[in-house]
Every structure is written in C-alpha cells, then in structure tokens.
Write the structure tokens for this entry.
Amino acid sequence: MRCPFCGDENNRVIDSRLGRDETEIRRRRECQECQRRFTTRERVEDVLPRIVKRDERREDFDRRKLLASLEKACAKRPVSVDALERLADRIEKRAQESGDPEVLSDRLGEWVLDELVRIDTLAAARFASVFRDFQNADDYAAFFEDAAARRAAAREELPSVRAPEPPRRPPA
Ligand SMILES: [Zn+2]
C-alpha cells in the first residue's frame, strides 16, 4: 500500500472500521515517511489475515474450520448454533480490525477462548484442552481457576448481563 503523496510503502494503520454493509473495510493510515494520512478501502474477504501455525505454516483464515472446532467443543452443551455463528463473527471482525497481515493461531485460539469461557465453561475447557494441548488434570484445574477469574472480570465489565431483579410483590 503506497502513500498517495510521496509513494512510500511504509505506513501504519491508525483506525479500521467495517463499512455499513460489512463487505468493505476502511483503514485510516499514516505514512511513516511524510506523516500524511490517507484512507484505503479494501474488500473484507481480501483483508482477513493469514493464520500462522506453530510449525510456521500459513493458512487462510477459515471460518468453517473455526465453526467446526467450536461445534466439537460444544457437543451436547446448551449452546445454540446461532451463538456460535455470532462468536465466529466477532472473531472474524477482531481478526480484520487487527490490521495485521498475519495472526498467530495461538492468538486466535486465545480470542476464541476469551469469548467461549463467557458462554460455556465446559465447552471452553474442551476447546482449551485441544488448542493448549492439556496433558493432565492439573492443566484442567489451572484452566478452571483462570476461567472463574475471567468470568468474574467479564461480569464486572458488563453489569448489564446480570440477571434482572425479581419483581417486587405488591403488598397484600
Ligand atoms: Zn508519504
């Protein structure tokens, strides 16, 4: 991506947002050479980062693969397909908005875990056991301790997700 003013190729992304129809992503960039700012528009499917595996192989971001691993983790858990689709949407959006051409698969896994732990702790444990390669019960124990802390933090962040107060009974 060349600067339209000076032609330099080095710039940094200072803001990214999805267009209204979500098929386009707009990026505000600042040229490292002349410091001028410009906007680029890219098609969403072109801007999903590549995923870098632990063995350094690169893969395309694959939403279907992500959903398949989520469904596996949520087998027999009370989590709707719709909730998983929305989770996949959020991960995809986060990957797009990172503005990075590549994302480590471990980082992607952490994003998923961060979301899944708020939806269903057992499903999150299953997901973590695969992607963090749990070896024994201690790994699970450490996970559940961490999950409890994450859930508590999430509740503090989002007071609106607390159950509403039961209606007061009118005086007899
Ligand atoms: Zn420039």
Notes: The helical segments are 44-47, 63-73, 81-97, 105-119, 121-131, 137-157. The mean pLDDT is 86. The chain has two domains: 8-47, 48-158.
